[in-house]
Design a protein that fits this description.
By secondary structure, the chain is of the alpha+beta class.
């Protein structure tokens, strides 16, 4: 594979926001019910505020994840790789990448790129299945290409799985 001459940008496959909408509607229904109970001075079970708080936290978490996915960009050039997701912004020159771990995750594979002072990870394309039916896709559709380019440009080589990481199954690349 020849090094890329022009920088290339990759973005993850975006999932439907239906789950986020359902979480927020559920929170609003429970929150409004709780508010009505308080205003009308009715007694209520402690489960109502607990459920409202749990639904609020879940809704915020889902919204943050969706927002980060929509702001995620992985850029590969002949000099470096950069990763941005709205919160994390890192750029590694190829010679600074020390290790790449490709670990099996619930939906596909997760790639961890570790450099001298920082790291980032991204999800390769995976399918979300419920009862054998594909409900969605997550991660980078070009994940295999991205991984190959990172390994090649940073001149890493596959090694045996380290002793301390025997609980995680995956492939490890490092400098010789």
């Amino acid at each position: 594979m020849q090094p890329a001459l022009a920088p290339r940008e990759y973005r993850p496959t975006l999932i439907s926001r239906r789950g986020e909408l359902i979480a927020w509607i559920s929170f609003l229904l429970v929150g409004i019910t709780w508010a009505i109970l308080i205003i009308s001075a009715q007694s209520y079970c402690i489960a109502v505020p607990v459920l409202a708080i749990i639904l609020l936290m879940a809704s915020l978490s889902i919204s943050l994840g969706n927002w980060m996915d929509r702001h995620t960009v992985l850029c590969i050039s002949k000099e470096c790789v950069s990763y941005q997701n709205g919160i994390r912004n890192v750029e590694f020159r190829w010679e600074n990448i020390q290790e790449v771990r490709v670990l099996t995750a619930q939906w596909g594979k997760k790639v961890h790129v570790l450099a001298d002072q920082a790291h980032f990870h991204f999800q390769m394309l995976g399918e979300v299945k419920v009862h054998g039916e594909v409900k969605g896709r997550v991660g980078f559709a070009e994940g295999d290409l991205i991984l190959d380019e990172i390994i090649e440009h940073s001149k890493l080589h596959e090694i045996q799985q380290p002793e301390q990481d025997q609980t995680e199954t995956g492939v490890y690349y490092t400098r010789e």
